[in-house]
Fold this protein.
Amino acid sequence: MIREPFLDGWTVGPKLGAFEAPTPESAPRPVRLPHDAVRDLPRSADSDQGVHTGYVPGGVFEYAKSFDVPDGWRDKTVRLEFEGVYRDAVVFLNGDAVVHEPNGYNAFEAVLDPYLRYGEQNRITVEARAHRDSRWYSGAGIYRPVHLVVADPLHIPLDGTSVTTPDIDADRAIASIATTVRNGSRHTRTLRLMWAVTAPNGSEAASGTAPVTVLPDSEAVARVRLTVDHPALWSQTTPSLHHVRTTLADEDGRVIDADTATFGIRRLQVDARRGLRVNGETVKLRGACVHHDSGPLGAATFADAEDRRVRLLKAAGFNALRSAHNPMSRAMLNACDRHGVFVMDELTDTWTRSKVAFDAAPGFAARWRHDVDALVAKDLNHPSVIMYSIGNEILELATPAGSAWSRRLAEAIRDRDDTRLVTNGINGIIANLDRLGADAAPGDAAGADASDPNTMMATMGDMMAAANASELVTKSTEESAAVLDVVGFNYAESRYELDRELFPNRVIVGSETFPSRIEKMWELVERLDHVIGDFTWTGWDYLGEAGIGRVDYTDEPGYEPTGTAGPYPHLLAGCGDIDITGHRRPVSFYREIVFGLRTEPYLTVHPPRHHGRPTATTPWSWDDSASSWTWDAEPGAPVTVDVYAPAEEVELLRDGVSLGVATVGAEKAFRARFETEYRPGELVAIARSGGQEIGRTAVRTAGEPGLTASAERPEITAEGLGFVAIALADAEGVVASDADRLVTVTVEGDAELVGLGTGRIRTEESFAGPSVTTFEGRALAIVRPTGRGAATVTVSADGLVPAVASLTIAGPASP
């Protein structure tokens, strides 16, 4: 069998109608997959997609590629495996329609056999469209990898081997393996399957074999139960992975296909008394919601970028990710398996009632089983996946029809995989929008602006907690909650203690919560056994829903309140613990302290130029501050300093002189605040409890800044990516965070620049580069190899010595 990447030699351009004349602007341009067709389109304030996508327009796009089809393929089956095309993908071969996949997040196959022209070049075209169909930046086009597969008509299809481990003891585990065999021939065939399980150390752990008879033009499933002795269990601390090699042979013993699947052996338990247990140990989920875009790469999905996100999120204290609000990429699932991160994988943002004009709701009733099948088939072998979420803030959930849909979807998941938990992101207010006017809890909930759910929730404030704990929400969501193994609540922590009394067997997870309230959320999670975790919105910043986490200064000339919608040119949400370049924001360190994972205090400073100015924030906002003592301010300028610490008090020193002691938690838990003056030098925070020092930290003023460029990994693979951190820093590496300037990136050698960006949420600069203005002294360049060898990344800026980073490109494929 041939299975190879099908990524090069493509073009993309606007899809023209049959009677539309081409123009210079519509001329196709060459691209390499994965590719986001809208990332580099001109943004404007009057974009009809508006704040949802960060003012990026949509469109209809056509990808095309010609490839040779040799005569030798006549007795083979030829197909393309697409990991995701956004959205309403239609695949054509030589002008003939092959397959239509409406869901932009599903993997799917295009079987080319009926339309191939052997002995000549064939032309593949793929249509994709994105237009007012998402509440966030979706991207568009063939944004996930594609593989060409040439196989025998008798073969193992995509996701054809699944492994579960239903029976685990200390000294052995049962691997229950099921393999699907597809027979595309005209004859009944009896074949033989052979399975070999490899332990994490590379040794063979178990093996088995079985015959399988497959009728013409049909599929058959062969099963085996193998005993793995003394299994290495998968967990967040020891993410041990096993592999099973499946071989398909004909009657004469000739191997005609083979497949390798990765799985983990772990035991999953949950109940209201002991919470969530993995391998018998209680686990509290320190969760992050994440969208699917990759920041400067747009929606294009690369294994190295997904692995980097997972690594950095875990290093920041998270042990769980929720894929919001669509199925997670295969690459990110693989990374979560490798790094020991739990996953809540989500099916959809809508069922039958639309949230935006052209979303997927109208077709949901016709295709929901197909979408469930695709989700489970993708996830089944991944030990990181512990929960399937059947939806997010579903509008019809509190109706009888919505309850029926809840049950239907939950049972469909269980029919296909009963080894994992089923949840749903329930927002009782969103589910009762049409009833809040007459029946809401105290407060004028009906007066909140419901035209945008984010604005509505921000406007309601504390009243939202009362509404979520109302009898209306209790009764109207009871059935939809009862069909779940774990009840996910979005912004409804007011139900946590209430439901312990009303529904003593209910297990709860905070499926989506405000980042500004993590200290309150985590206290509930730690104290209540039936609450198994918290998922903040969001762990990693993202494109679209522009400005929901911004901080506005209301005395700015021309300022007008806009709810949570950030006016153009806002591009990013601005609410991630980690920004789109991978840089941790102050909220990330605060959260790490709240989680109990950090004793060292963290020092962050509000810009002196904004001291005393009135601000407007949203519940998704954090303070406008940075861990820096380098500011464009006059000595003596007033400044606010915050120190986060798990302590009783903090002493602040400037150049060795005490500026006073502040109580931690006087205004906000885990925070001490100081009002002082800005003077260049060194600022030190010392945290104490019981009179004893538990940790200290320092920031100092940067000297003369220069350009630095540092490759995160100097050696990368030809199939991977290189990430180059750019900074304005002095000779000791201290970043000058208040002296931003335009930098230009050039790449020479066997690589090309594919992304350039910063964490600035309001910008008109393009991710395509080659220039960008640093943000708080930093930027990130992403390069993609064009071959094996070496590449040099040079960063320049007027008046500064250029900085150079070198990359070696070699080795095996990326993860």
Summary: Residues 438-450 have pLDDT under 50 and may be disordered.
